[in-house]
Design brief:
This protein has helices at 29-50, 87-99, 132-149, 155-165, 169-189, and strands spanning 2-4, 8-13, 16-21, 59-62, 66-70, 75-76, 102-103, 112-115, 118-121, 128-129. It is globular. 45% of the residues lie in helices and 20% in strands. The model has no long low-confidence stretch (mean pLDDT 94). The strands form three sheets. It has a five-stranded antiparallel β-sheet, with helices on one face. It has a three-stranded antiparallel β-sheet with strand order 6-8-9. It binds adenosine-5'-diphosphate and magnesium ion (MG).
Amino acid sequence: MKEIGAEAEITLENGFILKKRIVKKYREPQLDLRIRRERNKKEARLLVKASQKVNVPKIIDTSEFSIKMEFIKGIKLKDKENLKGLEKRMGEQIGLLHSLKIFHGDLTTSNILLKKDEIYLIDFGLADRGKIEDFATDLKVLFECVKASHTGFSETSFFEGYSKQMLEHNQVFTRLKKVYERGRYRIKSSQ
Ligand SMILES: Nc1ncnc2c1ncn2[C@@H]1O[C@H](COP(=O)(O)OP(=O)(O)O)[C@@H](O)[C@H]1O
Ligand SMILES: [Mg+2]
């Protein structure tokens, strides 16, 4: 297995995933080094923190530009068209992440895996400590992705799982509504 993502090269070596951050030629070399080093460090740190509560790959080893981690042998949710029955578990895992005050930053179905009947979150390169607004944005990104590429998804079931794990769920919902309203306003005002 070898995948080249936007930021990294992923290989399966001896049963482990190696995520190596590759050189980006369009960036100034010193800046490129710094960005790759920082994102790698941040991803490793946040994976460790998230693992307190959330299903994430366990870290085996880290170096300056790469992370060796557990291989989650399952499928990417992106490759599963119908998400019926998974919403509550998705909500629970994302709720747990947000309850640790971490937002994901790129919460699409390419970064959510399903192993047996468990949901795993991966790709913490853009994650960080966040506030209500960041959590609402995570949900907005996820729902947009789901609407564009999947069927069978119930937001109600998702919120059931999310609310169970995320104490401040009401604040996030209120903010999410505002984020949507702002989106509509922006579209209207640009016409
Ligand atoms: N721990 C893992 N277990 C199984 N597959 C993984 C794992 N980490 C990454 N992958 C696979 O590699 C792809 C790219 O990895 P990701 O961390 O999302 O990198 P990128 O930042 O390039 O998107 C994922 O969509 C997934 O298919
Ligand atoms: Mg990814």
